[in-house]
Amino acid sequence: MKPLVLIAAALTEIRPLARILEKQFEIAIALDGEKTLFATRQRKPDVILLDEKIRLADGGMVCTRMRDEIPESQEIPVLFLLDSGAHRSLAREQGAVDYLHKPFENEEVISRVQTFASLSQMQRAQKRYSDSLEVTVRERTRALEESRRETIYMLARAGEFNDTDTGVHIWRMSAYAQALAVAAKASQRECDLLQMAAPMHDIGKIGIPDSILKKPGKLNADEWQSMKTHTLIGRDILLESQDPLFQMGALIAHQHHERWDGQGYPQGIQGDAISVWARIVSVADVFDALTMKRPYKEEWPVEKAVEVMHKDSGSHFDPKMLELFRGILPEILRIKEAFVQR
User: Where in this chain does the record put each HD-GYP domain (predicted)?
Assistant: First the structure.
């Protein structure tokens, strides 16, 4: 396909230029400023030859208005057609890349137009390639994120394999945690990471014997000590990766059973020494556990769950996080209802 050249000039200037260029280029013409802007929008020429005498109806400069109003025109080379006595600075001042002096010389016109047409087409090809590459990168990024999500789901599912409701629980709980992180003014990136990291909080249970996990009665002292090691196992599994997502997951897995008053495990740390992410997940996890039906318990009403958790404010839970949670309860209930409808 021949490059498209838009000639914006009087007919007396268009005719000789068209004769010079018609064998190598497709020609479009415009006789005034408004038609020049219209043709630029509609035809998207490779090069524009613009007579410096062409003006808009209000007296405005065509090239200046074109650059301001038509974003894609930034990539179109404009060559001014100047009378022999006109100074080339006139072209530069109005956004043109070069100029042609009248009367026109065939070889000079063809050489200049060919140079800028080739440059324009090359730039457009590069832009198409860049746009295509950007689309490909977005698609591959989406595929990678989906694969990552599936991996996290499988890890979390392995940690609580014997829980018949885990598939719903882990993502519902992580949605609660993300909503609480937003309320706590965490950054968007942190909220997104938490939503993906929270489901891995119990991955360490994969290392706990079934005889303990499935025991119907109360665990004895030795069994309880073994059970508590799931926090260490989970941490060690997730710390194998340097990815910030799994680093956050390791922190949550390690500390989500710590208590605000220091009576939790495995370290017995308290207050702000506990990671904020673990404190958020602790609230979300307990609320979800209380308000979901399990083989060994009925679903608690939300009001009862919130009341019981409130009694543990300052002992089990970070008071600030619990207060924020109560403040976003309408959002929490919307999330809960959305999962019921799935």
Answer: 144-341
